TrEMBL record:
Record lineage: Bacteria, Pseudomonadati, Bacteroidota, Cytophagia, Cytophagales
Protein name: Pentapeptide repeat-containing protein
Source taxon at top rank: Bacteria
Amino acid sequence: MMVEKYYLKSLSLNDLKALNGVCHFADCVIDQVELIGVFDIDVPIKMERCIINELKIHSCWFNEGITLKNCIINGYIDYQMGGHNKKPILLYQNVFTGFVNFFDCQFASRVEIVENVFVRGANLFGNLNEGFANTFESELIVSKNIGDLDLDGFGFG
C-alpha cells in the first residue's frame, strides 16, 4: 500500500507506525520529515516525486534501506551518525536545494547516489582528515551528479 497525492504537515517515526508500516509515498508534499535520534528504522522507506520542505534525519539508521527518487528536498540537511543500513540507500534524480551534511556516517550496505543535483553541495567525501569522515563497507555507486560532494566543513558560510 502507498500514500499518494497527499499533503502531510509532518512525518515522524510515530506517524510511520500509525500508518501500519506504509512507508511508500508518491506525489506527496511533506512539510517536515523528522527522524531525529530514532536510530533503528526497521521498515523500508520509499519516497517518489515528493516535495519535502524540511528533512531532519540526525542519528537515523535506515536498517531496511531508503529510496528517494525524483524528489525535491529543500533546506539544510544534517545527517549525523547515520548509515548503519542493512539494505541499500538509494538516491536517484533528486534535487537537494541546501547543503547536505554527512557527518560520521557508517554505511554498511550498498549506497547509490545517481543523477542528483546538490545545489549547495555536500561533504559526503569531504572532511577526510578530521576524524569523522564517512565510511563505506559495501558497494558505492556515485554517478552523473551535479554539485560538489567532497566539500569540507558543515555547510555554514
